[in-house]
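In the previous chapter we treated chains in isolation. Here, by contrast, the input contains two separate entities that must be folded as one system, with a combined length of 907 residues.
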Amino acid sequence: MKILGPLTFSLATLVAPAGAAETLGFVVTDWKTAIHESQFMDECPEGMNAGNDEYWWRALPKDERARLTNNGTTPPVLRQHMPNHRGPNGEDVCQEPWLFDDPPLLTAEGPTSYGMNLDGTVDGAATAKTCGHEKFTGVDDRPAVDNQLYRLLGCIHGWRSDGLIEVSANGARRTNGLGMILIEVTGVDDRGNDDDVTVSFFRSIDQFTIDAANNVLPYATYRIDAADGVARYGGKLKGRIKDGLITTDPGNLSLPFYGNYAFQTIDFRDFRLELKLGDDPSSAEGMVAGYYGVDQLWEFVGELGWQPTGTYSCPALYAAIPKLADGYPDPKTGQCTALSSAFLIKTVAAFLRHPDGRAQTARAEATQ
Amino acid sequence: MIRPAHLIACVLLSALAGCDRPEPASATHDGPVVALRRLTPEQYTNIVADVFGPRIKVAGSFDPLVRTDGLLAVATAKVAMTPPGFEQFEAAARAVAAQVVDERNRSTLIPCAAAPSETFDQACAQDFYRRAGRLLLRRPLTDADLNPRLALAEEATKARKDFAAGLASGLSSFLTSPGFLYVTESVGATQSDRLDTYSMAARLSFFLWNTTPDESLLADAQSGALGTEKGLKRQVERMLASPRLERGVRAFFSDMLGFEKFAVLEKDTAIYPNFSHTVAQDGREQMLRTIVAHTMVARGDYRDLFTTRKTFLSDALARLNRVPTPTPGGWGPFEYPDGDPRVGIQSAFALTALFSHPGRSSPTLRGRAVREHLLCQRVPDPPSDVDFTLFTRADPHIKTARQRLDAHSNSPACAGCHKLVDPIGLTLENFDGVGQVRFADNGAPIDTSGTLDGTDYTDPAGLARALRDSPAAPACLVTRLYSYGLGRAPGAADRDDVGALQDAFADAGYRLPDLLRAITTDRLFYRAPAPVETRTASR
């Protein structure tokens, strides 16, 4: 009987005993910048922004345009080196955006946005931690929503539902195992209502398990990324559950991110989570919000703007970011250094395995 | 006595050595043939691996066996060799022989033929054939076994100008010979009611290890030691202590539980996205691991398999069962808590998913599987004119399987059998078509009450206790094991012996290793049936 190896059933049960507080685990399958889109695009009355490519070819004489684009038949992805180096001396438009004088970015307008009230004010007036800005009403009618990232990106085609930025990022994450965010909710006595739970965030070193239709299968086990036995990331927030909605207090934490060939650890400030537990325990959807540092944001969008999927002018975006920044003013200059932001997330139930080998407890789940 | 399978094969093998005349009554088998059993694909593969090493792969597939008296092992004694079936064996033989003599393997398997040569080396060929042929034919070779193959190898060497190719031709002849493809059981010259020692060795080896006898067994068969009580016990203890025993136990339970169905198991992944072939393979492995761990490693009471909450999980099965993986990337032990419906082997994927339809569960298939595979009770096939429309029609008022079956099995023609199987299968309705736990079906709560031979219960745990306490369960194991070893269902003459083994099994606390020992050391296990009736065509 050597094949089976050690067969003593000494492993403590992994299933939560009846009555004990349980732990809920989730893996984030979809991470999407929260962009509100009205039926008639009222939020973008002047239309969508033009991209680097369009600015480039519009500036060319007609004959030159026809020559460089082979009468327009060379696709943007194959000619991107030209629009991206359209500086007077061939400078890179996203590496040195301050050298360019593109028209201002078209930003999202209107009263409605996804998001949360991050600054605690009702009118967006400046506080010690924020700069004055205009508030939104939430898509779900909640008041005083802060989401300057939406104002910045809402009229860029790539970030909207028929754009490629989010689709490409979510699609890539399905199969490459990068930027895998795990959420663990501990101390859950009642999935419907519980006034004291703890929500932790980790990175997974395991990829998604997907079915034949490329859907992420729930209830897979994910190992938490760790170094020297200590979990990486691992930010914790106090939270509660009310009518199945998990909400957290704000806190500063870091999350892994991958999308469109860009890796990043996003250091959110005043980050918070809302996650709705539905009737089907195998999945949950929700929203996260927090202040996103402008330097980190530019690090991402600056790199992304080089790609034709960016569909925005790097100089225009670069100029708009500080104007829209509404959080964490620099003590010396008063210039805000972060943008309020919100992201819509989808998750499926998962089991988290900690660096010490401890597996998440779970209660017996049924399919129906 | 002429062996019928040999005759059949010789028709097909007329051009090959060894078939130009009937295989002689070997001096190594003392008396007439009393049984022939065709090798199963697993046995073929095991033999090739044990004789030539695991690098030699067996490709292709063989004619399927039709389950007989509850076992494929019984079918091996009844299967005919068809011409296309023989072609499959011949193709496999050629492929195996080619691998054995190829450059990578020849230096270790046939050192005297390591260097390429165009010349036939009689001594080398003779040495190789004697060593390999003894294990393949399960007895020492006679001149009649050896000489035609040597001649064939020599001729092929000349024709191909390649000694290795010549060796391969002779080896192919061994691998297609009736003496290899059929396990031949003969009686002793002086004891016509008892198998000779070579037949005893083969019966022991295929029963406990699912492979050909090794050198030690053959040596004891040749010396006659295996025919003594002391010698038999010594070999049985050696074999029970061998790592090969697990392979034998797995083979038996794979047969008993109908695992050949795994080869064609399919599910509708639109309904069950968690299903994959990995899940299916792991489900089979889970059952075998659980059985081996409980019965052989822990020496547990066989009946407790029906109530155990301990099992093993892989990543895929953990996900399917909605519990954490005990050992990421591998297999690990796992125990479900009290109150969980997953209790006993009858709740495992290998029963609940294997005996379900591609898109839904099946209380009838599951109930029948429990009756037939675990309790050895025969359930008749449904009548050919049965009307399934009552069962399959889309009626929004009928939500659960129990409601559908009620509508269907009220028909008198159906009621008899459904009363046998449904009260078991409906309790397993807590498991959907791939064995995932559920408590509702189409939004309606599932009623899992049922009854087993007079014992009522309300849930899978109750069914588990009823199965554990059913005297039919351990009796079934004894009967199946005995049939598996003999290659036939026990007859009237075996009744007392099987009864005594059942008593011994109970007295030993229903421990499987003790049962295996009791069966294999029982002289009646080697009792010969009536000789095979052979007919020679007059034309």
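Helices of chain A lie at 52-58, 62-68, 76-79, 148-153, 165-176, 294-304, 314-324. The first strand of chain A starts at residue 22 and ends at 33. Compare these points with the single-chain example from earlier in the chapter.
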